[in-house]
Design the sequence.
């Protein structure tokens, strides 16, 4: 009996160690998410980090966990982070890395909706106002300036998360990230450009190589391997 306990302990310890060092394997099929070979039914809740102050984050996350939540989900708020082109802010309420680490320390998962579109009563849908003044920009459709700045910001956020080892593939809490947001509902209004933009966004995201799946909420024509919801 003693030996069995010892081996069970060793096994759990090893599993924990390997997750930290080598990360978790997050995949999916038509039925569920699969984490390290186990099918998961996960309950998720939103906490939008800039709507409260960092001192409140541990308490909010803890309350969610005690309420039976497994995954915290948040948008990433582009216009709060990129104040002018290439000029980034991650202080105070916008300390995304700190927020992700608090979620991790609580033993929960994180879904990062990098978007960059925020559909949640947030000025300009989270798109920076300065981008409006860059000639030729049309928001959320196929045009050079919008796609350039969107890719630039997405890459910046992904690289920041990678540096801090926050993707589940690196042992961190992020099991999913999202590109665009409920765009399938609007795509037709943009005509051919809308279709091309959605496909471009999916490919741009997948090429970021996060090691965890990308999702596109309400985007029924999203190409594999993006999760269509
Ligand atoms: C990850 O898990 C999936 C499903 O369980 C499996 O098909 C795949 O081979 C795994 N990938 C790695 C790198 O272990
Ligand atoms: C993003 O744009 C800034 C300038 O606006 C530039 O300095 C930076 O290299 C770009 N980053 C990427 C990943 O393209």
Sequence:
């Amino acid at each position: 009996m003693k030996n069995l306990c010892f081996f069970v302990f060793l096994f759990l310890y090893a599993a924990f160690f390997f997750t930290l060092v080598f990360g978790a394997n997050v995949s999916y099929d038509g039925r569920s998410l699969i984490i390290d070979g186990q099918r998961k039914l996960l309950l998720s809740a939103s906490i939008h980090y800039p709507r409260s102050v960092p001192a409140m984050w541990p308490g909010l996350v803890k309350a969610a966990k005690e309420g039976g939540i497994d995954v915290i989900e948040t948008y990433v708020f582009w216009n709060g982070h990129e104040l002018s082109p290439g000029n980034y802010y991650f202080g105070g309420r916008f300390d995304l890395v700190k927020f992700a680490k608090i979620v991790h320390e609580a033993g929960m998962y994180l879904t990062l909706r990098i978007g960059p579109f925020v559909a949640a009563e947030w000025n300009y849908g989270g798109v920076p106002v300065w981008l409006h003044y860059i000639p030729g920009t049309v928001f959320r459709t196929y045009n050079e300036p919008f796609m350039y700045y969107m890719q630039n910001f997405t890459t910046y956020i992904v690289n920041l998360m990678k540096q801090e080892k926050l993707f589940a593939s690196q042992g961190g809490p992020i099991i999913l990230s999202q590109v665009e947001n409920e765009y399938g509902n609007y795509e037709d209004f943009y005509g051919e450009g809308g279709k091309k933009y959605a496909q471009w966004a999916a490919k741009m995201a997948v090429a970021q190589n996060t090691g965890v799946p990308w999702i596109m909420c309400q985007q029924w024509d999203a190409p594999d391997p993006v999760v269509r919801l």
